Amino acid sequence: MASLNIAPITALLDFDELNIAIHGRMDSGILISGRAELEGDADDFYVTAVFLEDGSCLSHDSSDETPFETELFKRIVNVIHNDKTVIGRYAAIEWADAVEQHKQLV
Question: What SS3 string covers the chain?
């Protein structure tokens, strides 16, 4: 029996003014713009990479990153996965659209 090689679902999420809190306060936080690369299945997605507006790339499995860059990536991912944030809700909608498009191709 041959196994099917089904490509994972992928999507790009452009974000502008993603807000990361500092000491729990959004008004003293930092704003980041860029693009996130999403990958996953029909149930959920994960962020494989973040491309910042200046061209820098942060990713989950990069051994070249400093502790700050690693922490920044984690915090960006947390905002993208948080459906209580504007960006998180937008990511959920974009992911649902990507899943629907993928179903039409299969």
Answer: CCCCCCCCEEEEEEEEEEEEEECCEEEEEEEEEEEEEEEECCCCEEEEEEEECCCCEEECCCCCCCHHHHHHHHHHHHHHHCCCCHHHHHHHHHHHHHHHHHHHHC
